[in-house]
Design brief:
It contains 15 helices and 13 strands. With about 375 residues, it is α/β, with parallel strands linked by helices. It has two domains: about 180 residues, Glycogen Phosphorylase B (Rossmann fold, 3-Layer(aba) Sandwich); about 180 residues, Glycogen Phosphorylase B (Rossmann fold), CATH 3.40.50.2000. The protein has a seven-stranded parallel sheet, sandwiched between helices. The longest helix has 15 residues.
């Protein structure tokens, strides 16, 4: 087969779907020497995603999410001869000469339509057409598959669940000097609790702040509580979180350090005494898996895909209950036997996710789309 993979978004977005595309291509290059791959990259993107001889770059002029993308992309793809086209950003071209595979990462835009700009509404509004049009659909979790059945008309027969994985850089780090240096770069002193993600309502940070305030009042009056470090950019409606911190005078204990470069994240996960992920909705919940891959004990929401990813390797709590969240955090901070258990279980759970497995299962979906498999 000759497989086209739309990697245009990677030039504009290194995280999220861009990271998924990069890791998938790297893994495919490791496991597949038989099929040919055409990597559809932005003409501005000169990076080499794979050096293997069965991978080649094809420069594309059409930018992703452009209002005329469908027309321009269809024209630009017409002379590109591939047997299957994979759209990691889930919207296939209206007109194409080959079967399409789309990856659905989450349906947060259907759960929270108020988060969308007008341009985003135009793009994500194509989801219902996309799941009908695509020959095969990859969902990154059973939760996302269930959302597809409930919120769209995607036929179950076309949907395959293929998990993502943490990158190879996420593993336990024993170099205490490197961990100390990473903390110093962000002005972190002493033990800390870590959250990683965009500051927006569905991440449920307001209730995390409430839980932390409860801990200060009810549990940690006679001892120092590790600081809460929130790593992530500001999204939509971020103001409430900052207002709560200011209103309750928690600025001395809760710090916002903004987006963290990918190379620093493994060190912060390893340096943290606890990772907390109270999100209301996640299609996969990669930060939770990254933290477990580093051996960091975790407390997470019991909603959406997070129980599926965590298994029994994290303390799961109802995200709408700050008091229960606080109790779980306190237990994870103070019970040494539990901390050892969470670390061991987290590392074991993370072993069940790998990009090699993801790549092999994705090839099988390509074969289905091309009519080469039952």
């Amino acid at each position: 087969m000759r497989i086209g993979i739309d990697a245009r978004l990677l030039y504009y977005q290194q995280a999220g779907i861009g990271q998924y595309t990069l890791r998938l291509v790297e893994a495919l290059a490791q496991v597949d020497r038989e099929n040919e791959y055409v990597l559809l990259q932005s003409r501005k993107d000169r990076s080499i995603l794979a050096r293997e001889p069965n991978f080649r770059r094809h420069a594309m002029w059409t930018p992703p999410h452009h209002r005329f993308e469908q027309l321009a992309l269809s024209l630009e793809l017409a002379p590109v001869k591939v047997d299957v086209l994979h759209q990691p950003d889930f919207i296939p071209p209206w007109r194409r000469r080959c079967p399409a595979v789309v990856t659905i990462h989450d349906l947060g835009f259907l759960h929270y339509p108020e988060t969308l700009t007008e341009a985003s509404k135009r793009y994500y509004g194509q989801i219902h057409w996309a799941v009908k049009s695509a020959e095969q659909i990859i969902a990154v979790s059973e939760c996302t598959k269930e959302d597809l059945a409930r919120l769209t008309s995607a036929p179950e027969s076309k949907v395959t669940v293929i998990y993502e994985a943490a990158g190879p850089q996420f593993h336990p780090i024993e170099d205490q000097s490197a961990l100390k240096d990473a903390k110093a770069r962000y002005g972190i002193v002493g033990d800390f609790i870590l959250f990683v993600g965009t500051i927006e309502p569905r991440k449920n940070l307001s209730n995390l702040v409430r839980a932390y305030a409860y801990l200060i009042k009810e549990k940690a009056r006679d001892q120092a509580l590790p600081k809460l470090i929130i790593a992530g950019k500001r999204g939509w409606l971020f103001e409430e979180v900052f207002s709560l911190v200011e209103e309750w005078d928690l600025g001395y204990a809760i710090r916002f350090i903004g987006s963290v470069p990918a190379e620093d994240l493994p060190y912060l996960y390893n340096a943290a005494c606890l990772f907390v992920y109270p999100s209301l909705y996640e299609g996969f919940g990669l930060p939770l898996l990254e933290a477990m891959s580093c051996g960091t004990p975790a407390v997470a929401s019991d909603r959406s895909s997070l129980p599926e990813i965590a298994g029994d390797a994290a303390l799961l709590v109802p995200p709408e209950d700050p008091e229960k969240m606080a109790q779980a955090i306190w237990q994870a901070l103070t019970d040494e036997e539990l901390r050892r258990e969470l670390r061991q279980k987290g590392l074991a759970q993370a072993q069940g996710f790998s990009w090699e497995r993801t790549a092999k299962q994705t090839i099988q979906v390509y074969q289905k789309a091309a009519g080469l498999a039952g």
